[in-house]
Amino acid sequence: MTDTLRLAVLEGDGIGPEVVPVAVDVATRALAAQGLTVETTALPFGAAAVESDGAPVPASTLDALEKFDLWVVGPHDSASYPAEVRYPPPGAVLRKQFGLYANLRPARAVSGVTATAPDIDVLVVRENSEGLYADRNMTIGSGEFMPTPDVALAVGVVTRAASERIAVEAFEAARRRRGHVTVVHKANVLRLTTGLFRDECLAVAERYPDVRVDEQHVDAMAALLVRRPADFDVIVTENLFGDILSDLAAELSGSLGLAPSINASDTRAMAQAVHGAAPDIAGRGIADPVAMIGSGAMLLRWHAARSGDSRVSAAADAIDGAVAHVLGEGIATADLGGGASTSEFGAAVAAQVG
Ligand code: ATP
Ligand code: MG
């Protein structure tokens, strides 16, 4: 077991350079408290990389990322890049290039923050490589096209293999949580694609007799998440449905600014908050770093599950505990109605973990 964790750090655009360093600092202190050191390597990404290297995800960044299994990645704001060149979204490039097929998005209310659903505690396990999301599509490249100027088409892809691996991810997560998986689809209308997804998830369920499984249509799921949020534990679904349901769950738990996430393959994981670059507040030092800090904790927990290093999971627990403690004390950034700056909030959390 190594005493040094190597992190690739890609700050990204907008509020990225404000929240990413806070998350890295908090993680570094939490790990130091467990006797571990962190070695960070900053890599060009986003608008700064367009300036320095002529592309938002330079080849040198992709090459370097190969050597890291843990990445902390900020948001990107493709709209801010020079209009004359069209780039695919940088986050999608990373997910596709490295096969980060699982997007894990937990949503849980914390005390100190007003939540629409104070009893929500769910994990949305979102298939990250298929479905209707053309730019994420690993199987057929671009999934959208216009056969005539007046008709636009999108092709959705669902494969048995990708459905199986995301289902395994969900059932494994359920074993670590409250032992309940809800498979979300729309198989009454999208019979072949989301039907295949559902069938494969239910086939995987047979390998997990200790986990309770049920299923919902995505529209009913949206309503039930508002009406009876406490009834749900792990929600596994395809790409587009997962994107929408995870924003809904995040808002029900308090705010998008709190929502952490990781994107993972079997061998590497990238911490990246659910929120975007927030250009409307960038550069003012008021962004909420909670989502990015929490994404860092998820990254450490992912690493601990594979390495078996309990010091790393202890650091992750310390981070989540510190954030809850600081929010519980009424310290918060402007999005939650507080008066703390990004760095003040970060310093309060850092003081708790280290
Ligand atoms: P993307 O397309 O990249 O997902 P988006 O259009 O969904 O971006 P965000 O960048 O997530 O938008 O911002 C949505 C709103 O939430 C904005 O008003 C933004 O200021 C706010 N917001 C997002 N993240 C944060 C944060 N960490 N702290 C405070 N406010 C935030
Ligand atoms: Mg968004």
UniProtKB/TrEMBL annotation:
Residues 6-349 form the Isopropylmalate dehydrogenase-like domain. InterPro entries: ICDH/IPMDH, IsoCit/isopropylmalate_DH_CS, IsoPropMal-DH-like_dom. This is Putative 3-isopropylmalate dehydrogenase. Keywords: Manganese, Metal-binding, NAD, Oxidoreductase. The keyword Acetylation does not apply. Its cofactor is Mn(2+); Mg(2+). It comes from the Bacteria. GO terms for molecular function: magnesium ion binding; NAD binding; oxidoreductase activity, acting on the CH-OH group of donors, NAD or NADP as acceptor.
